[in-house]
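Example 4.3 (complexes with small molecules)
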Amino acid sequence: VNFGGIEAGGSKWVCAIGDGPDGVRDSLVFPTSTPEETMGRAVDFLAGGGPVAAVGIGSFGPVDLREGSPAWGRITTTPKPGWANVDVAGRLHEALGVPIGFDTDVNAAALGEHCWGAAQGFDTFAYITVGTGIGGGGMAGGRLLHGLLHPEVGHMRIPHDRERDPFDGACPYHGDCLEGLASGTALHARWGLPATEIESDEAWELEADYLALGLVNLVATLSPQRIIVGGGVPKRDGLLPLIRERVHALTGGYFAAAELDGGLDRYIVPPALEDRSGVLGAIELARRAL
Ligand code: ZN
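Answer. The structure with zinc ion bound is encoded below.
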């Protein structure tokens, strides 16, 4: 059986047909443009390479995931021009006539890692991505994290020492939330260079401090058995080890778990599926929608 998976990002869409990491039969990546054009390209790809039994979509957000909500499957309040209130799941269902699984892009990536990657064997874990923005998803007790809405890890509030870092923050809603201080967008705005070109130790120490504060808050709330850190920014050489060091210092020996005391290199890890976690997780969302 073939499934369709879509990682519907704010800057690009990744589509695939298959049934898992070793069974991807075809894939296509294209930039996100208008909703009509973008969803049309996904439909053409899935219809042309199919048939697919179901389609899974891991979408940028915020999205409506509430069971029974009339707006289920829609992107809700995004500032991205043209995309607010777009019915992504509805449009794909109408065009392809198959069941649709729908979740956030980060929950889809978390699911991919749970099935085939770094979260295998864990039922409570977090998946964080640090790129243009910061997002987070995961599972608690084997279920993808949903609730009132869905987690918005990037918008958690963290301490901001304005003497050390006078930058006001880049989040249009909150200024200096975690995403406002530590996303790729924030790095670019603060240092005047894209993250890939920033070399100063000061910049990366500050970045590690902010991300570590966010991760320690997750440790204290979700109690994840592992934290997977994906996205473009953490690919920076040496950043993950620096984050682990800061997490160790910030937890202060309080949490009685070996993972947080000497085991951090196995606790805070990159995604095992690298850049394919999202689209593979979307394929699993499709399987679960049948
Ligand atoms: Zn924010």
